[in-house]
Amino acid sequence: MTMTTRAFSSRPGATDALRFVLNLPFAYLGTALLLLFAYFTRPMLLSPLLLLLIVRQAAPLGIAVIGQSVCMRVLSLDLSIGGVIVAVSYILTSGALPYPPPVLIAICILFGLVVGLANAFFITRLRASSVIVTLAMAMILSGVVISLGQFYAPGDAPEVLKFIGQKRIGIVPIALLVWLALLIPFALFLRFSVFGRYVDAIGSNPNAAWVSGIPYIRVLTVVHVMSSLFAVASGLLLVGFVGVGSMDIGSDLALNSLAAVILGGVTFGSGKGGVLGPAVAAFMLTFSFNLLTSLGLGEPGKLMLQGAIIAVAAMAYAVRMQRT
Amino acid sequence: MSKDTEQAVSGPEKASPGRTLVEFAGISKRFGSTAALTEVSLRGGHGSVHAVTGENGAGKSTLMNLLAGVHRPDGGTLRLRGDAVTLGSPQDARRHGISTIFQELTLLPNLTVAENMFLGREPLRFGLIDRRAMRRAAQAALDRLDSRISPDTYCADLSVGEQQMVEIAKGIAAEAEIFILDEPTAALNAPEVEKLARLIAQLRAQGKLIFYISHRLDEIFRFCDVVSVLKDGKHVATHPTQELDHERLVALMVGREIGTLYPERRPQPTKRQPRLVVEALAPSAFGCAVSFRLSVGEILGLAGLEGQGQRAIIRALAGIEPPSAGTVSKAGRKSGDVEHLPASIVATARAGVGFIPEDRKIEGLYLPLSIRQNVALGMLRDQSIWQRARISGNAIEQLLAKMRVVSAGSGQAVGALSGGNQQKVMIGRWLASGVDVLLIEEPTRGVDVGAKAEIYGLLREFADAGGAVLITSSELTEVLGLCDRILAVRGGALVAEFTGTEATEEQVMHAALTGGIEQEAVA
Questions:
Q1: Any idea what the CATH number is for the domain that residue A280 is in?
Q2: Distance between CA atoms of A133 and B466, rounded to whole angstroms?
């Protein structure tokens, strides 16, 4: 017998329609539309060889997206992905650490672990906003790398990574195999483990998860560590793909991963969402960037598209907040 | 019924005090299968402060919501100034001169006082809002209450007491004749209560009718001329407050037998094994430390008025709001197996103590998830996050059948269930988890009578099977009917202990109100 009346109620019609559209995993429809569009305007993009090249190009984003999607399912965010990738590229290519590639890769993984733990610490223990914490982390990491760049400039990527990033077996790029090798086991883990159940629970009601004794802090810590480790993996692949390190490598990966997760049907706070949707969305984004380039709209078109996607994401967020 | 007032009559009304303004004639209201009100008849006249009281769930808020246009009665007639009316909406009620000040204040914090007061009925000039006229009218209404609040203040900057003042001024500005105050002192400090007392006196002097909903006895005697008591949705009595004292009023409020709603208690063994031993536990919100035992097979109740510390105690015990001091030890099923509980919710849950919160929508359930997923989460309690989730689908289905959860199947989202079924799912999650202690806040809030009986049965069964249950409840009848032992809480301290079978509502109410059993209630 509590009061539920409010002086205002939002207009239902408009938001309902918007909500319905936003609740569809847009990536499937979007990819289909894009392929159709390409068929009529730039059919050469649809040749199997070119498609596989685009898939190879999408792999680093696709791997970063795995971590980002789990972050968002527990109502967190990871914007430090770009910073992690720049740092990884620097460790691997600058020669500042005079070790063989396998050791450097191990250092990168350790580094990802530390970044993930630091993110998680500030978010769970100090209750800081995940946006602020991870954005600050990205900025600090980029800053450190730029200042170190005066002493050792980033250079050539290790051969082993170039091999993984650029070569293929038959016509299948190795990068795609790496992507699948990370994606499929992780999807199974999320589906069947206690951890995956807790991710659903926290995503759908963090208060209830806390009050019912779910190890909330632990789950969030693991999520952020995972996200940083996926970022490291993404960085390894990207450095190999590009062949050289640089100061702004992977800088738009954080925002693109955000966009891909949202296009892939993971909405804030629903506790729902698969791993496949975001993966398809990673391909869709990469494909659309290629399409824009072939239409002569390369960089400006890319910026506009990214902006539009993030605006839609913000609206999706606002609609969800109204509902709760 | 004319009364001397300290304040001068400043309003223009020339209403003769006592003339009937509102009449409820045989009003009934049902929610689903629950009768919230049954043929309630009462009247309120000009220039009087009319208390409506009763235990939680007695129907007082429902009755007032009918007058406020929130609900419509299923039977009976509502008369205003002698004419039968139908109030279709809160706006409708407002047009009929009824102003409601709800417990949760409804002012918009980002608007000014004047904007809030005229929200939705702004004075217009050439189709635009006439801010000057609005400001002037707001100021006039505030002046009539001798308030110093400026109409240009943003409501976010007002204290709760001031916001209440603005809500009342809003009613004045709308020329309301009937004011409904729902538990108005709940969030006020002492000086603000004084101010409210003066406001009420002013409204009465202006010939308004004030319905004052409260179960705080001293306020009823202090502010009100007449008191109507509701119980289980029925009108028990209406008396001038001068003719009553605390004891008679309490007797009117609680006077009924407890029927077969409650499961039978097992005969009490003289010595029971303790399951939880609580020593000098000091919830951080209250200064007092409490010590008590919760025994195997027992349902223990913390009773008292709302906000007296029951919630703080049970939450400190669960580890949600870690206590500032004290220890809790838990005996396992094997004797001699004692474990100290650290003050963390994750650790208490692991140790076999389940906590069921009062607000199932915010803190209890995962509304978008299915019934099955909700219950399954309980089964994961003692599993590691890395392992494959071990969930028995059969056990879930059996549990749901046993609990008689009514749904379209266990795949249905919990958010779509009725209150009683949601409550069952929330309890079911903990029954499935294998804990042996349940800490439950308000086990049956917002639950219909049928589901109530079933929930009581489940809790009794859990206790009989070797579990231990601690509940807090603001429904005295529930505590008395269900619990083996009752601890009365007042001001964060345990003030009295009763055996469930021997306690009477009067005794517990006295202890909760005054802090002692022997003491006479102080007026």
A1: 1.10.3470
A2: 48
Whole-angstrom distance, CA of residue A84 vs CA of residue A235? 8
Q: Tens digit of pLDDT for each residue in B459-486?
A: 999 999 999 999 998 888 889 889 999 9
Q: Smallest CA–CA separation between A244 and chain B, in Å?
A: 37
pTM over 0.80: no
Q: Is residue A157 part of a domain?
A: yes
Nearest to B349 among A193, A204, A213 (CB): A213
The continuous run of DSSP H or E covering A169 comes out as strand A168-169
| Mutation site, A211, A220, A226, interface B, largest B CB count within 10 A | A211
CB-CB neighbors (< 8 A) of A207 in chain B? 362-363
Q: Using alpha carbons, select from B114, B16, B106 the residue that is nearest to residue B68.
A: B106
pLDDT digits (tens, 9 = 90+) for B432-441: 999 999 999 9
Q: How many beta-carbon pairs under 8 angstroms link A with B?
A: 109
Beta bridge partners of B300: B470, B485
**Cα–Cα distance, B89 to B76 (Å, whole number):** 18
Which residues in B lie closer than 8 A to residue A219 (C-beta atoms)? 385
Q: Is A166 part of the contact surface with chain B (CB cutoff 8 Å)?
A: no
Beta-strand pair B209-213/B48-53: parallel
**Residues B355, A272: C-beta atoms closer than 8 Å:** no
Each residue's pLDDT tens digit, B28-59: 988 766 678 888 998 888 889 999 987 666 78
How far A300 CA sits from the closest chain B CA (Å)?
39
Residues with Cβ within 8 Å of residue B130, at least 6 apart in sequence: B122, B123, B124
Length of chain A: 324
A276 compared with A78, residue with greater pLDDT: A78
Number of domains in chain A: 1
Q: Which of B98, B225, B113 is nearest to B158 (CA)?
A: B113
Residues with Cβ within 8 Å of residue B380, at least 6 apart in sequence: A194, A197, A198, B389, B390, B391
pLDDT digits (tens, 9 = 90+) for B385-429: 999 999 999 999 999 999 888 888 888 889 888 778 899 999 999
The per-residue pLDDT for A155 is 85
Residue A86 domain-assigned?
A: yes
3-state secondary structure B221-237: HHHCCEEEEEECCEEEE
| C-alpha to C-alpha distance for A31 and A170, rounded to whole angstroms | 26
Give the nearest partner residue to B320 out of A204, A211, A218, using CB atoms.
Answer: A211
Distance from CA of A29 to the nearest CA of B (A): 25
Question: Exposed/middle/buried for B491, CB within 10 Å: 0-12, 13-18, 19+?
Answer: middle
The pLDDT > 70 percentage for chain B reads 88
Task: Tell which residue, A30, A3, A15, has the closest CA to residue A259.
Answer: A30
A15: in domain: no
Is A9 an interface residue toward B (CB < 8 Å)? no
Q: Which of B366, B425, B437, B448 should be substituted to probe chain A, the one whose Cβ sees the most A Cβ atoms within 10 Å?
A: B366
CA distances from A319 to A16, A83, B184, B307, B482 (A): 9, 30, 34, 35, 44
Residue A184: inside a domain: yes
Class of domain B20-253 as given by CATH: alpha beta
Residues of chain B with C-beta less than 8 angstroms from the C-beta of A215: 346, 385
CB nearest B385 (choices: A200, A210, A215)? A215
CATH 3.40.50.300 in chain B is located at: 20-253, 274-514
DSSP 8-state code for residue B370: B
What pLDDT does residue A20 have?
59
Q: Does A132 touch chain B (CB under 8 A)?
A: no
Q: Are B366 and A200 in contact (CB < 8 Å)?
A: yes
Q: How many angstroms separate the CA atoms of B370 and A88, rounded?
A: 42
Q: Does domain B274-514 have CATH number 3.50.50.60?
A: no
Domain of residue A218 covers 58-314
